[in-house]
Design a protein that fits this description.
Blueprint (H helix, E strand, L loop, with lengths): L13 H4 L5 E4 L9 H4 L9 E4 L9 H9 L2 E3 L3 H5 L7 H14 L2 H4 L9 H4 L3 H11 L5
Parallel strand pairs: 1-2, 1-3
């Protein structure tokens, strides 16, 4: 399977460029989790066009409201279910995760792009453990 990545900078809206049936709005506020079951409802994952929402949105739920107003499918990445954290990611990390998932259909593998610092709390079990490790290493945690 060969993926072709395309980036387009334009003043046009995503709804002007692509059919709404192909669009999937990635919103951290969506109650739906992204997966093949969501996309098989008329959209093949290879043909899906993802609109990355939530970046710089100061109002909670804004990206979800936009997707619903435009009649576009919306979903969030299932991070909490698969890796136990739910954190903000950069555009680059989201693109890498989506591309890995397109190729492997394996969320656990795809979330390898989530930075290690978000998992650090799992290794440091208590406040005293964390303070002791900081004093021993004399290095910042991240």
């Amino acid at each position: 399977m060969c993926l072709q990545l395309a980036f387009l900078c334009t003043r046009k809206s995503h709804t002007e460029l692509f059919s709404p049936s192909r669009l999937v709005y990635l919103s951290p506020d969506s109650p739906m989790e992204l997966g093949y079951d969501l996309l098989t409802e008329g959209t093949d994952l290879a043909d899906a066009v993802f609109v990355i929402g939530g970046l710089g949105a100061s109002e909670t739920g804004l990206t979800l409201k936009m997707a619903e107003a435009e009649g576009i499918k919306h979903a969030r990445l299932p991070m909490e279910r698969h890796v136990g954290v739910n954190v903000d990611l950069s555009i680059t990390q989201v693109i890498k995760i989506i591309n890995d998932y397109r190729l492997t259909r394996d969320w656990f593998y795809s979330f390898r792009w989530v930075p290690f610092r978000f998992f650090l709390h799992r290794f440091l079990t208590s406040e005293t453990d964390r303070c002791a490790k900081i004093k021993l290493n004399k290095q910042p945690l991240w």
